[in-house]
Amino acid sequence: MHVGATGPVLHYLSWSRPSCDRQLLTHPIRGRGPGVVHVYCSEAGIIFQLHRGALSNCQVWRLQLFPSTSNQSDSSMKDVYQVCLLGCGHRGRAQARAYKAHPRMNLRALCDIDRDRLNQLGVKLGVSSLYADLDEMIRKECPDIVLIPTATQFHFPLTKRVLEHGCHIDVEKPISEHLDQADELLSLASSRKLRIAVHHQWRTAPAAAAIAKALQTGRIGKLRYMYASGKGYYGGYGLPNIGTHLLNMLFELAGRVRTVSASVLTDGRDIGPEDVLHSPAGMGIVAGENVTALLEFENGVCATLLQHRFETMDLNAHVVEVYGSEGRLLWRPHGAFWLPSPAIPPGPNLSNPPGENAHWEPLEPLVPDTWDPGMDCQVDEYTFVDHYVRALDEDRDHPSSGQEGRHVLEVINAIFLSAVERRLVSIAGLPRSHPLVEFRKAAGLSPEPEPAPFNPREWLEVEDRRLGR
Predict the structure, then answer these.
(1) Phi and psi for 183 in degrees, rounded to 5?
(2) Which domains does the chain have, with CATH numbers?
(3) What are the tens digits of pLDDT across the range 300-333?
């Protein structure tokens, strides 16, 4: 294979399919089912991908060249990053498939204390190195990255242990239960020159990337305002669950938050200390059925964040809307749209001919060049992984970094503090203690609420009984 005047020297060919491991080819390429041939060359970071498809009875190959934009020397950049997974639950399975599919990642080992779950995922992914002990896995496998898609209550202790082993991190959102824990993790990572990515996959997902590009290229003019809503979870639980994603997406569009003013209500009234509860799914200490927050960003733009409880979950309510001086943008799960007008008035548009600039147009999702629709993973997950490859190549943070994950917690804490003290809260100088814990302590209650069911449905039944429903 030859590229340019001199061309890189071919080292080896590697065949991969979603259902099998990469393996060395020592024979001519032959048809072996849909897949991708990856050709790694001597120039660091250059990958050729031959995408194999079918056209009638012929095999069709599409060649792509991906040069590295890394500033690192050839000797310091890895062709393939070694990855281990800690936790084989639902989120772990989704992330593992994406890391398995990416040509620059090698998922080499899995770890879980549930042996059945561990074995099942190992068989499905073709990974034979299986462990019940995290420390043993890291000592033997020497990974570059460890994935931590566990319940939130375990994020801090597990992330700290992995950082102490000297590995980069991909931890499920939110980064931790408490803000001071996030501070400690970021300090430890910095001292060891390690990276933390917090798995807010929506921030880098193809639909969200299309929204960000449309804003950056001026398709709606000057940014004026943003609106984000969840899909109907109990508000306090929705914040660390869905709200974390929405906040991270808003950060991509407008930067850092400066001040927060919020209303947090339970049963139609301001929350009291007795309304502070342990969240379902182990996601920390929360309060409020309906959370409404006004966020002022450092660039002067404001946004409204809603996490309101619905009787029935409604995906139609789950949106991010971006208002500009010349148009609007709309994000929905797996879709992005552009309105070439600031508003759609009823009846004929008074400023334009009837029908002109008065309808939403879909935006093309921005998928990685290495993505293949035949891969056995979600494109949002794959895109998150692709961003991590490029970030590590270039010795920088993932767009959804530990710092961004901590800022999510800062905003959530500011929302609760604003609700408790009924005032505008500045992010600068924000206390690191949890405002809801301090709320209970000031009322003479124990800092920790009573234990609560882990299952969200059971949790809601208990909460409704508490409220006399």
Answers:
(1) -55, -45
(2) 10-66 (no CATH), 81-199 (3.40.50.720), 204-345+353-442 (3.30.360.10)
(3) 999 999 999 999 999 999 999 999 999 999 999 8
